[in-house]
Amino acid sequence: MALDGIIILDNTGRPIIQSGFRSSTTAYPLLHIDAVNNALQKADRSADVDPVIYVAPYNSANPSACCHVEVGDMRFLCPISGDVDPLFAFAFLQTFIDILREYLGTVSAATLKDNFDIVYQLFEETLDAGGHPLTTYSNALRDIVIPPSLLNKLLNVTGTNFNSTINSGFGAGAAAGPFSSPLPWRKTGVRYNNNEIYFDVVEELRAIVNKNGLVTFSNVRGRIEANTKLSGTPDCSLNFTNSQVISDCALHPCVRFQRWNRDKILSFVPPDGRFTLMDYTYSPNPLPSQSQVMLAKNNVALPFVIKANIELEDSGGSFDVLLTSRYSTHALENVVAEMHLGQGAGGIRCSVSRGSGGGGFINAGGSRNLETGGASNGASWSFDSRRMVLRWEIPIVSPSSSWSLHGSFSTANRVPRPSHVIRVRFDISSHTYSALKVDQLKVVNAKESYKPYKGVRGRSSGDVEWRW
Amino acid sequence: MSVDYLNTITENASRLGMRIQESISEHTRDINLAQSNASYFDADDKTKNIRKQLDSSSDREKLDAMKRLIALISKGRNVSEYFAQVVKNVASQNLEIRKLVYIYVLRYAEQEPDLALLSINTFQKDLNDSNPFIRAMALRVLSGIRVPMVGNIVVLAIKKSAADFSPYVRKVAALAIPKCYELDESHLPSLIQTITTMLGDTSPLSIGSVAVAFEAVCPTRLDLIHQRYRRLCKLLVEVDEWGQIDLLNLLLRYTRTMLPRPIISSNGEEVDRDIEILLSSVEPLLQSRNPAVVLAVVRTFWYAGPPSAYGKIVRPLLRLLQFSKEVERVTLSYILVLARTEQALFAPHYVRFFLFSEDSRQIKAEKIKLLVYLINYENHQAIFRELIEYTEDANDEVVANCIQAIGKCAALVPESMQQCLAALTAMIKNNHDVVVSNAVLVLKHLVQTQLSQTSKIAGPSKSSINIIASLARKIDDIHHPQARACVIWLVGQYCSSDEATPGPAGLTEWAPDVLRKCAKGFALEDVLVKLQIITLAAKLLVLNPTDQTLILLNRYVFLLARYDSNYDVRDRARVLSSLLLGVAPSILASYDEIIPAEERGGVVLRNEQVKVVLFNGKANISVSDNTEHASNATIGSLGVITGKSALSDTVLPDWLEKGVESSLRDSPDDAPAAPVPSSMSSSAVKTKLGGPVILTPTIGSSSPASSSGNGRKWASNLDEFFNEAAQFEEGSSEEDDDGEEEEDEEEEGKGGTEEEEEEEEEEDGTENSDGSERDEEEQYPQTKEANEKGYQAFE
């Protein structure tokens, strides 16, 4: 019972790289690749494929299942046999992908092919042949699998024995070699000339607004991403001025759980480099509530309102959507509103404008491919005829401004069947819904004293489903 | 002017750039740097050179060859023919080459056992290397070579590595045990011995793998855990995340097998002390960032904890829903299993299960099921409204699920029945077929349930008859065949009435009209509908055999049916018309005159008998819930997700009647910390807090020699490590209590050289005119850059 391995498929469903499989038949990985490709072919939307696919036994092999996730233009498969919790596979896949991201920057078929030897080594070090994760802390991994860099390539191709430090083990070089640190997540002997530590407070809002314009569900999930460049073994303790807005958090293993639960102080010895310190949920109303009224109060105020007037008739429909920002200080950026128009939609005629006055009236013909409307004050619309999605983009919605989209569409079927939802996504920089504020960070270092530069910034995004 | 100047500069720059490029490409032509690794992938398979390259003396050539081999493996080629050449490089001084060689050897050792044996000497030598990484790697390759002949060597190597001072090597040793066992089961006794020793390991790094080995090799020897149980519980928090999962599963199994079941009585719960130890030490792990760890803890609480502790698992589970859509999908299925028995746990959080339009089909289906489970008097309004909005989903399956869910709502919360019926009747007017047909089906179901319930007490309730009446009046608007058939059946079944109506006696006034409308378009109807029309006609005639219009209508319908192209329709017509012979022989008159009644033979039924045949004996509606059989599903098992129970081979053991003697778990090394559970958990805290340990002497400035010496000491004596850690924590927790002392300590930490700078973090980051800020900027030139990126400095 374990993870059998990892297979990486490209966007055509062909395997690019796969880890070694211990299982009896060589057909085993192929069966899983087939199962996933078949499922993908059958589904209308690739999102509709069940992430856990049952793979029928072949010959005498045990039945197994294939857990898979989509990453960029690729799909990562993790076959499991025996009774394994699929969450185990997904957690591992996620960890592995994070590691790849740290090593390669962007994870795509091209970068993986470019660094396939690194990927193979990572397979080897993160997953034991028996199917159990081995080393997944990136600090420890970096000691044993050297991240790709130009210098590295140079040294490698010239045949220089770059790894002499590793080879000679203890006593040579500043770093004591792999696995010498008593803290598995932090390597020893880290040195920086400029000591810095940065925190990004990132919050994401998800909400549903029902047909009456009432927020029925809203949830703000935040995370604190840290980037540390601190020498030695620093012991940090971070506290907030308003920690009561945080509820239900998940912490990086380096954080002392008990200390947080007792004093609401994040006390930790950070790994070197980037990591996610904690995840949390923002609760506007700290008291847990059960009743309906209280739940309503627990909702976060949305940064915009939509007035949608959409009329469906035989073989088509018309729409008139008005989006108004409710924020007076912050601008919404990269606003994207999407509307699924249903099968057979086409013949879109649209105009986007800003406010009541500005903006030109642009019409675009009903070609079947990606129809693109012109831009008016930066706003634009397009229609993805593959996904049947009308997309309305506004780069910046400045405070209190309002924007409108109106137009019509036709459908091949007599009865149009759009999804009755406008999905709006946006970003807001230097803003957090919770206004979570860092009070202070103490860095204590046993061996050497330095005063690091400490920075914090906030950023938020949102994904709101507005029904009409 | 300035433009000219600029142009010259750019020109010069580009010229310079070109020259640099030229010279670089000249110098690196050898090193083919420009050719990226991807070329290994795309290059044609010039495999001839590989052999030569592997034999060459240059590391560069070898590395190139190895990369090409790995690329070929990646493409699915069998490159085992190079095994001999590759094995020669197993002792290469270059670690890069060596790692690739290991990868290769592991893949092909089985096919080339003889050649693999050649390399074993090298690995054995490596087991004594001073670098723990090399030792571990050697052991991994050694245990990965699945050649039975090496079994003994592997056992020895495992035994040796199990006592290694590096916990990483011990971890690898533990992971090698199952492989060795798989290879040759005769090594069992010595492997169990090794596991027993390793269970005493205090390093949190390796203990998780020991649990893996235990489960694979000797899962029934839970008696080995007795003395270690409490210590393992305490260790849990520090174990690495993957180890936590394995260890938790082992401890849960132990608890279920060896400890008494928590007793729930009216005056509270009685939980064994050792269960409390387990629960209190795993509770912090509910805050893990790893979803699999969270689930393992949830399992522990659910299957070993008392019901009062269940509340703690709710929020962590809900948190998993936000992790990723895959995790959400799996977690929803688990929540469904939990909600089936403890709906009150999740009912207050029903909003978390509202559907997003972009959710995948499985997620939507699970969420709808969950909402139905969670419905209660308080939340039925909200859930109900949501379900109605989902009927506009673009996916038919979701719409169907939803409308069925609405039906179930009405059954679960009787107060919502009226609302439900209203909503469903409204849906019949919808212009989507799916909505209409499903609404009618559910409506039929509801009406039937209602009628069967009320008919026991009094006659059919007025309201449901009214619904049928309204359905009957809308028969022209209902186009979906199944729905139409359904309505017609309902009309026929419930059309009897004692009230005086303008129409035929004994019938509701709307029933004959339905028949009239249907008869008109009979030829164009779907088979399903035709069958129901004939049945309706027969039923109406039986209830009122004398009405002339009905007889005529019947005659018309039966005539059409008799010559229908579908044999089912013809058969049904034949059966019914013979059945009706005793009721109204005249309907057949038109075409049966030729056959005299006496020649026909068979039994002719009386009116009452025909009525029984036509109306009674309808099967009571049974609520078929196909998920019901899975009620004994275990969360955290694959079977719950795929719906294939064959995959769930691990069934949690049931509790013993009485647990085993608690004193078995007393162990000498626990003695000081044992007395009260609460103190146990706090001592676990201590070790955890001490864990990160500033005591680490291996920091930069210290000399390498001393650092290695210290590392050795620590690794070899972990008990000391933890004692020290505990002491440290005691010290620091005192400081926490006392603010003054803490400040002192902090000043010490900073060497007492710098004044603390008082600096408020600015709300907007716009006004930073503080003097100290400027100081800092001078001190740290990167500040400016950081500020540009939007970071605000803070204290």
What do you see in this structure?
The complex is a heterodimer of chains A (468) and B (795). With 468 residues, chain A is of the alpha+beta class. In chain A, 18% of the residues lie in helices and 39% in strands. Chain A has 9 helices and 23 strands. Chain A has helices at 27-42, 86-104, 109-114, 116-126, 138-144, 150-157, 164-167, 257-263, 292-297; strands at 2-3, 7-9, 15-18, 52-55, 64-71, 74-81, 196-209, 215-229, 234-240, 246-251, 265-268, 273-282, 304-313, 316-325, 332-340, 345-354, 371-372, 380-384, 389-397, 402-411, 421-429, 438-445, 453-467. A 10-stranded mixed β-sheet of chain A has the order 10-12-8-7-23-21-15-19-18-17, with no helix packed on it. In chain A, strands 1, 2, 3, 4, 5 and 6 form a 6-stranded antiparallel β-sheet that branches. Chain A has a 4-stranded antiparallel β-sheet with strand order 13-14-20-16, with no helix packed on it. Chain A is globular and about 70 Å long. The radius of gyration of chain B is 40 Å and the shape is elongated. By secondary structure, chain B is mainly alpha-helical. Chain B is 61% helix and 1% strand. At the A-B interface, β3, β4, β5, α2 and α3 of A face α2, α4, α6, α8 and α10 of B.
Please render the helix and strand layout as text.
The complex is a heterodimer of chains A (468) and B (795).
Chain A: E1 2-3, E2 7-9, E3 15-18, H1 27-42, E4 52-55, E5 64-71, E6 74-81, H2 86-104, H3 109-114, H4 116-126, H5 138-144, H6 150-157, H7 164-167, E7 196-209, E8 215-229, E9 234-240, E10 246-251, H8 257-263, E11 265-268, E12 273-282, H9 292-297, E13 304-313, E14 316-325, E15 332-340, E16 345-354, E17 371-372, E18 380-384, E19 389-397, E20 402-411, E21 421-429, E22 438-445, E23 453-467
Chain B: H1 2-27, H2 38-42, H3 48-55, H4 59-74, H5 83-88, H6 95-108, H7 113-126, H8 132-144, H9 151-162, H10 167-183, H11 188-199, H12 204-217, H13 229-235, H14 241-258, E1 263-265, E2 268-270, H15 273-282, H16 291-304, H17 314-320, H18 325-341, H19 343-346, H20 361-374, H21 380-390, H22 396-412, H23 417-428, H24 433-454, H25 462-473, H26 481-493, H27 511-520, H28 527-543, H29 548-562, H30 567-579, H31 589-592, H32 597-600, H33 607-615, H34 638-642, H35 677-690, H36 704-716, H37 718-737, H38 739-749, H39 771-779, H40 782-788, E3 792-793
Antiparallel strand pairs in B: 1-2
Helix pairs in contact in B: 3-4, 4-6, 7-8, 8-9, 8-10, 9-10, 9-11, 10-11, 10-12, 11-12, 12-14, 13-15, 14-16, 15-35, 18-20, 20-22, 21-22, 22-23, 22-24, 23-24, 24-25, 24-26, 25-26, 26-28, 27-28, 27-29, 28-29, 28-30, 28-33, 35-37, 37-38
